[in-house]
Amino acid sequence: MFKKILIANRGEIACRVIKTARKMGIKTVAVYSEADKDAMHVELADESVCIGPPPSKESYLVIDKIIAACKQTGAEAVHPGYGFLSENAEFSRRLEEEGIIFIGPKHYSVAKMGDKIESKKLAIAAKVNTIPGYNDAIDTPEQAVEIAKSIGYPVMIKASAGGGGKGLRVAFSDQEAFEGFASCKNEAKNAFGDDRVFIEKFVEEPRHIEIQLLGDAHGNTVYLHERECSIQRRHQKVIEEAPSPFLDEKTRKAMGEQAVALAKAVNYQSAGTVEFVVGGKDKSFYFLEMNTRLQVEHPVTELITGLDLVEQMIRVAAGEKLAFTQADLKINGWAMECRINAEDPFRGFLPSTGRLVKYIPPPEQHGVRVDTGVYEGGEISMFYDSMIAKLIVHGASRDQAIHKMRDALNQFVIRGVASNISFQAALMQHPRFVSGNFNTGLIAEQYPKGFDAADVPHDDPTMLVAVAAAIHRQYLARNATISGQLPGHEFTPGEHFVVLMGIGQHEVKVSEAHGEPGGWDVAFAGKTYALRSGWQFGEPLYIGTLNGTPICMQVERRGLVYRLFHWGMQADVQVMSAHAASLQALMPVKAAPDMSKFLLSPMPGLLTQIAVAPGQEVKAGEILAKIEAMKMENVLKAERDCVVDKLLAKPGESLAVDQAIIAFK
């Protein structure tokens, strides 16, 4: 067994590998860019080596720097994690030449199966059902349009070296094929250093189901059942679960055996995943691609099988045989994973960067697991992907797993950057998700105009008012002796409050429940709410009961406003005396400045291109600029016909949210 391994990655997956290595008694080496000098994975590792500036292409993607770090520290093996160099055959080959073990498949397997074009040809030769398409690299956007028309729209334009939804576009017309080809090619080059692109038919109403594999160097290969990955937004997975609520045992076995046959065809050694697109009506399945690495969603497989996949990868790389057979692998319960990303669901899921002012994940107990690479006070950088953490739960059944995930999301506190927790919580309550009757189009179909707070179901939103009033009443009670309080905000026992929020204005009375510490009775709108809790003002979570039912709610106080979060619902609530409310009603409302003649940056990021010039006439739909953030290229287009007046930013400039880029006449 190895004595020391290097992790050629960062963030959550680097921390994940370090945790298993430590359990196995193996010392670890972290590599880091200048942007990651204070990162968690650097702190956790036994040693660390700086490998360059923040951009990935100058640090984490430089093979020579990784090898130099191995030699400097004496690391015997390298775990690549996922992304970066994990599916780079040249990296695997170079390590082998240097006498360093790659904790992953052999370079020839990576070359054959890690390349989407070559792997599809291999699958065809092995008589595996594949999706119709053009299986060679495409050179020009004009050629892409002609191929797309010959296949028939809609088509998928895909980067050969792609993964994680990067370098992938769906086109429904010639124009979308033309523009999608260019964006796909640029994104692939920036993310993977390989700009080859191919096209295949887009299967409508599909399910995305993948088979987890393990193979060793002694000819043993097994499948660890399937993962359902159909809940996707813009081709990036949002929720994963194992097993799939869609498959029956016969289909599961057929897909697993086909995946094993494909792996054996390339002498596959290590953990890998064969992805399939599955027809929603007849359960017909087609080979999509093989990921020759550990997947982001591997924890759900670990929870239903009891295996540590990182440990298995390390043991296989050290030459050990698999200690189990296919017959030993049973499905135990149900697991789900939500990816917690730094993105704002209320602003079109735009990336959010900055400092984590508050980061409190739910406790890791009773089947709840949190994999992360961040900490409170740490920085979410624009240079890397948006993942903050992976929230994983395990239950005896799918219903139990859903309920555990709902509660865990409700307790996950993130402040300082926006997160997609509210969106994940809404999905966990969506009837189609709960029923298991969904496909990869669910999010696009159910949220065609994006996600809004109004999309979150809630049985009784007035409950938020009750909680806000009780909290405010408790706050005033605790501060009753403070002198110099604002007029209208003095504490008066049994006072009536005016509560303002999106559902209207309410007069509320809060009284202490006699003989019950932390007990409040809140009366308004003909209802009485019994709130019982040991909650202390200033803590982020209100945990207690509402009319005897357990309740967990996040509470954030911003001056006179409470921001409440509950099961994905977000509400800003003001609680004040009737006198203060009447004064506020008299205050003039300041009009926002008119920014309609400016192109504003919708996110923090790097301005990579301005496609127009001063004086140029632009038609609606034409490209104005491109911004790169968190490894994704974002194209900004004109919403209507206009004429460019001035350019207010230059390519290469780092932009802030709402920074003006272009002024129009």
Features:
single chain; 665 residues; alpha+beta; Rossmann fold; D-amino Acid Aminotransferase, Chain A, domain 1; Dna Ligase, domain 1; 6 domains; eight-stranded antiparallel sheet; 17 helices; 27% helix; 33% strand; globular
Task: Outline the secondary-structure elements.
Blueprint: E1 4-7, H1 11-23, E2 27-32, H2 40-44, E3 47-50, H3 63-73, E4 77-79, H4 89-97, E5 101-102, H5 107-113, H6 116-125, E6 133-134, H7 141-151, E7 155-163, E8 166-171, H8 174-192, E9 197-201, E10 206-215, E11 221-233, E12 236-242, H9 249-265, E13 270-279, E14 285-291, H10 298-305, H11 309-317, E15 334-341, E16 343-344, E17 350-351, E18 354-355, E19 358-360, E20 368-372, E21 379-380, E22 387-395, H12 398-411, E23 413-415, H13 421-429, H14 431-435, H15 442-446, H16 462-478, E24 496-501, E25 504-512, E26 519-524, E27 527-533, E28 541-546, E29 549-558, E30 561-566, E31 569-577, H17 578-586, E32 598-600, E33 605-610, E34 617-618, E35 623-629, E36 632-637, E37 642-647, E38 654-655, E39 660-664
Parallel strand pairs: 1-2, 1-4, 2-3, 4-5
Antiparallel strand pairs: 6-9, 7-8, 7-9, 10-11, 10-13, 11-12, 12-15, 13-14, 15-22, 16-17, 18-21, 19-23, 20-22, 24-25, 24-31, 25-26, 26-27, 27-28, 28-29, 29-30, 30-31, 32-39, 33-35, 33-38, 34-37, 35-36, 37-39
Structure in a nutshell:
The chain has 665 residues and is an alpha+beta fold. The chain is built from 17 helices and 39 strands. Helix content is 27%, strand content 33%.
